[in-house]
Amino acid sequence: MTREVLKVFPDTPIQEIAKIIHEHRISGVPVVTKGDEIVGIVTEGDLIIKLARPHMPPHIEILGGIFYLRRPQDMDEELKKITAVLARDIMTEKVITVTEECEIEDIASIMVSKKINHIPVVREGKLVGIVSRGDLIDTMVEKHKDDNEIPDAP
Hints:
The protein is α+β, with helices and mostly antiparallel strands. It has six helices and seven strands. It is 36% helix and 22% strand. The longest helix is centred in the first third of the chain and has 11 residues. The radius of gyration is 19 Å and the shape is globular.
């Protein structure tokens, strides 16, 4: 776990977030309140949406009318991210977190099943660290450095 976590606030401009992610070669940053409570996370994927060309959502045209095949909320969320200016506009609000007591195997399982690269670590709802895929690899190598072998899956 990395305890010195780079973080941003809901009113941080996305250009500043992009600069932080680029300069520190990280894949995302937690968005916190002044009291370090996590309210979201901004990832490279969130920022890349800003560069993508808007596309017409799946639809069908019948008798001159257009019927969209996606939920309006999904389209609103994508439009919100495309036009985002601040962290609060682009962040993913449903952040998966773990506590300091969480086993490394459980963290790895969450990352694999949810297809995420990092998980914020919280204590009583406040950010105290972050675990990245790189942290898991470092732990794997450290744990097995003497036997020169990466363990097989259970």
